[in-house]
Amino acid sequence: MQEGVDPDPVVVEFRSKDEPQFQKPDHDPHGEVPAAAAHSTTSCDRCGKIGFVPTHACEAAVGFLDDRGERELLCSECGSD
């Protein structure tokens, strides 16, 4: 990573817990749905919007997946500015 250069932010679509893929099925109200297991709750670093995002995006933003260092995690609205 170059000194003094901000790395590109991680831009993601924030999802709501009310979306169908995050709802528990009626036959298993205590289990965790696969979509919820693969997502984390976090907020946009610019506007503060809160929602579910893929866990791998969070890991990329904090620098766990590559050597680019910590990056901003932005919602799609802030990332398109």
Description of the structure:
The structure is a single chain. With 81 residues, the chain is of the alpha+beta class. It has one domain (10-79). Helix content is 19%, strand content 20%. The chain is built from 3 helices and 4 strands; from the N terminus they run E-H-E-E-H-E-H. It has helices at 34-37, 55-61, 76-79; strands at 10-12, 39-43, 50-54, 73-75. The strands form 2 sheets. A two-stranded parallel ribbon has the order 1-4. The chain has a two-stranded antiparallel ribbon with strand order 2-3. A hairpin with a 6-residue loop joins strand 2 (39-43) and strand 3. The longest helix has 7 residues, at 55-61. The model has no long low-confidence stretch (mean pLDDT 86).
Can you give me a brief rundown of this structure?
The protein is an alpha+beta fold. The chain is built from 3 helices and 4 strands; from the N terminus they run βαββαβα.
Task: Describe the SSE topology.
Elements: E1 10-12, H1 34-37, E2 39-43, E3 50-54, H2 55-61, E4 73-75, H3 76-79
Parallel strand pairs: 1-4
Antiparallel strand pairs: 2-3
